[in-house]
Design a protein that fits this description.
The protein has 229 residues and is mainly alpha-helical. Helices cover 66% and strands 5% of the residues. It has one domain (6-227).
Amino acid sequence: MAGVSTCIKYSMFFFNFLFWLCGSIILGVSIWLRVSKEVVKQIGDVNISEFYAAINVLIAVGAIIMVLGFLGCCGAIKESKCMLLLFFIGLLLILAIQITAGVLGAVYKSQVESTLQERYKQLVPLNNQPEDIKKDVEALQKANKCCGLVNGHQDWTTVPVSCNCDEKDSNDCTVVNGRHIWAKSCVAVLTDILKDNLVIIIGIAFGLALVEIFGLIFSMTLYCQIKNK
């Protein structure tokens, strides 16, 4: 009977070490995107947490990938058919989940701006909102260098100090009644942030998919060689 290829065996081990490392990276990046303070998740009654569905999926995927990488390393070194089969099945499921996450990211990317505008325009004019919501909006403006939610400074009947732009020569500023304020609305700024984050998610999901296909080939090849040994 044919023996186990040493090249395949150690290639499988090396692949799974890299796979474990990728799992660590995707878990770390996904958690950072999820808890990043750059994106305000809620203002008053307006919740945009549904845009984090793809990130939540990738957090779970990253953790499982780390476990599968460890399982694949042990299966290759110990020549365990059980471990390799579990690794193959788990990796196949992960591949399907990542493709789903990538599709979710692509779908949300095209809906981000329209969804934010639809929800935030309910708060205009901002001066008519309760004090707690106005404070949240002003905090958002300071943190993201923006003014107003949908229509810029026009969302305010009295433009607050939080709209003031300190960089008078910057292209991000505009002059209104002698005051330098931020030209972009907060919806425009949040849209850019969310789209940038979703591009990262899509890139990670489909980039790892290619690596995982090679993992499936390696694991099944090694499994067949051990079985025929």
